[in-house]
Amino acid sequence: MEQLREQPQRPERRAPGGGVPMEPAADVAAVAQDAAAQAAAVPLESSVVTVTVKTTGAHSTRITATPDTPMTDILTQACRDLGVRDPEHYLLVARGEVINEGRTLGAAAGEKVGEGEITMRLVKKPEAGARQCPS
Amino acid sequence: MPILSSEARGAPVARYERLYIPLGVLVTTWEFLRASGHERREQLCFLAGRAVVSAAGTAAQATCCVLPMTAATGAYVTLTSHAQTALILDALENRDEVPLLSLHTHPDGGVDGCGLRHSEIDDRGVDLAPGNGVFSAVIGHYALGSPLLFPRRSAVYERTDGTWRLLPPAERDARVIVHSEMVRVVRVGDRTIRAAEA
Questions:
Q1: For the segment B21-39, what is each residue's pLDDT rounded down to a tens digit?
Q2: Which residue spans within chain B are E strands per DSSP?
Q3: Which residues from chain B sit within 8 angstroms of residue A96, using beta carbons?
């Protein structure tokens, strides 16, 4: 069968210095996408951590802070935002464990640093009675 | 500065015009309180539910009781851990429920003829979460009496502006309503029917 049209042969282009060959605009976009994907794949230490602190499901605050922020600062800010009047009775709990106030936010977030948002619950230990149990 | 930003979201309902409590939920709650009462120990538990909006305002419908693990003596009761509080609030959030009413028992019916009252510990500690609009009930005599007398024989508080306010008897009875779980239509005479609570 007769070949009606011959595909034009493009000369291969070489980037100066032997880098990525530069082609028309469509190819440049692909290179940009590749570069962005490669950059996203590189694990970077997060410069900020966002923590959502809840009381009930209806009331929460979203705090963004650096990983070296002491948890006591997070607790204080959460109590202020959520209208807690007796912060000395409240603690933060995440994944079933009380967060030690001596830790930093980065340490409390652990492996979740860099994954976006973490969630904590601002709670107290309810009590009632005329006098506190001596034990 | 380590904290870069913070933004509060949502807000609990500031006031419930009425609190509706199904009788079955109340009876289950009462049995829990009474079980400790038989051992001469105080007890603490909670009702949770959902807000109901009507023309009269926002009301609250209790839908479940929360029966926690507690450590108690004859004059003091507390949940066993902060983590338990978080667990309870997680469970309620998963069910789209919020705490509505805290109930705890006292050994007597009130000191010096003053009736049942919150103690200082009750004021600061009896609720599951901060926020206005929630209620707190004090049940006398370790809940060894009948639940059918609730709320008339109990002290009921409402938290307003961060402090607990004792509801006067008429307001208490108008706003805290125990109801049957069913409405049954019955025949009265030959031609008349009426809806009656069980």
A1: 999 999 999 999 999 999 9
A2: 3-9, 19-22, 44-54, 57-66, 70-72, 76-79, 98-105, 135-139, 155-160, 163-166, 176-179, 183-188, 192-197
A3: 83, 86-87
